[in-house]
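Pair request: fold both.
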Amino acid sequence: MASDRSTWTDLLDQACSGEGLGVAYQPIVDTVRGTVVGYEALIRFPGFDEKSPEVWFSVARAEGRAAELEAAALRIALKARAMLPTNCFLTVNVSPDLLALEEIRRIWRAQGDLSGLVIELTEQVPIDSYGHLESDLNRLRAAGALIAVDDAGAGYAGLRHLLSLRPSIIKIDRDLIRDVDSDEAKRALIEMLGTFANRVDAWILAEGIETAEELETVAALGVPLVQGYYLAKPSAPWASIPLETAHRLAARDRSDHGHAVRHLVEPAFTVSSVAAAADALAADARLQFVVLLADDRRPVRILDPFSAAHGWTAPGLRLNLDTPIAAALARAVTRPQEHRFEPVAVTDNAGRFAGIVRMERLITALASSGSSASA
């Protein structure tokens, strides 16, 4: 990495001219249909020793050349726009404090019609007010562009700024998505953002999906758009997602409008013996429990570290995917007091393990449905 200012000046001269720059495109997926509906353009620096975009944009900002570098990145990213697959949009990133500068405005004028383009305002520099950007945002919308905000729930993209910007797409940051399958508070916040988005006619996009469990959870929460390494990494135009993942998303059952436990199910770590359960729990402190399965994939017992260490395998409560939430909770609370708040195993119609439901999710879902009914 270059360290002296004169060297960085030469490198920035090259990069701002477009020399040594590249771009990767990461698919954005519709969770209802299981299809790719857009791509995010991500700038890369293959022609330089320093590869980190964060380092490059940080240095450019320190040297007063942030607008030059962002303009070069936009020109490179937009070159492939004409080849974009049918019915897909393209997302490009812009620092909000640079949006009104002439270097950036020239990019949009050169493009003309901005239909199918999503301009994502990133969090490079905190912005206290967007009033001075209103005219630029209005021009972009009039030309056909959609506006997105990055890192919802963090930094400048708080609720106050969401109200000011009225974006068409609200991106949920990886920090909120990480381990969402086991964090009730994160799920509650995503549901709140989803309600807000529906009221202002916007879409939620969950980025940073890295596990099957995270994908299933955000899809069950009704998040319409997702992207992340689990689906596809940034690459040359135009990557697809694995067929198995696409089919699983498209096949999700949404027929009962959220009244059955299937909408609360989350994956769990499974084992075929008590010894394997004890080993898994000892090896990973993040595991709170594992599910012991029989050879036919029927759940035998949900084991925590204590029960696994003592070899307890007494059958636990099992529910069908279509069990109503109220009935599931009524059955769960009849368990002995020492097991009353343990997760519940859920099976399909053939009795095979489908996942688990935590008691806090049953309680929250029932309370929510009760509040809706009385409103």
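--- second member of the pair ---
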Amino acid sequence: MLDLLRGAGPAGLGRAELAARTGLTPQAVSKITARLGADGLIAEAGRAASTGGKPRTLLRLVPDVHHAVGVHLDRDELRAVRVDLAGRVVAEGAGPLDFGAGPESAVEAVVRAVARVGDPTGLPPLGVGVAAPGPLDHRAGTMGRVTGFPSWKGFPLRGVLQGRLGLPVLLDKDTNAGAAAAAGAWLRAAWPDADVDAASNVDVDAWRDVAAGRVADAAPGAHAYPFAGGGPRTCVYLHVGTGLGAGLWLGGEVYRGERSAAGEFGHQVLMLDGPPCRCGARGCVEALCLGAVARGDLPEAARILGEGAANLVALLDVDQVLLGGRVVAGAPGVFLEGIRSVLALRGWGAEVLVALAEVGVAEGAAELVLGRVFGRG
């Protein structure tokens, strides 16, 4: 229900609409909305135009009642953001990071960054999402053998950070966070950058149960909530920075695979016996694309990225390809044109949208936390 109100934006929804969309009984909706209102999570958004009877009261989410923090651990930079429940950034900071200095140094950097973007009132965030280079084990919260940084293998980053921060921590690959950011952008679009009401008396554990649909009087099928934001159902996020990877948004959620290894896009081989890659193979997309970047041949880098993207489109039948990362940000037009040209040659020019990601990986890491809060994790 909170997710539906989030997607509706300040205009809000009526109780009858909430009942219809969730499958809950009207009585259940009334009970839940009364509880959420008492906790300060929702407020009245006015009244709908009358259609002959009593005008319906509309309800909206109160976004700044709580926050989540997202952190992007890149190989040479750390960026942190604090976002409200609508996903809007309310504080951010960035600084250099030496990923090669080892896990302990990175942990200290994350702790300092979370403190810098913290709520000045002292209210703790609902959780901290940390996006890091893969591979890693999302479920166990441990790092894998990051390409070029073997000392990270097996490091329990999530557990260590939870102990240091005293907060729930979610660890995921940077590319998965990028995919989540793409979906979150659709939700944020409903909310203008304007101050809204605040509240401080939230029973977080109580309303999280409601957000996850754990209510006793739900109608049959009420656990199957739709994706409230109306965003992309199938999407590939390609990140080109110090490395190259993909995040997959399939069926309205991030797809990680059975071993949290999905999206190792950069290490698909395009050229047998090609140049060596840091992963140990030869002719990988990452080695070819970043090699072209290093030579200053950005059109060639874009063409190589496009060939890899076309393979993913053919394999997964996605309808969107979104681009992010500092390399793309430095020459967005080159990469958009290069990938669109390859897809057109392969016959998907009209069916697949190629666009720039609207927000960054840190925002996506925070969105992963919000997804859990809103029952979508």
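Observation on the second member. The two ends are 15 Å apart (CA to CA).
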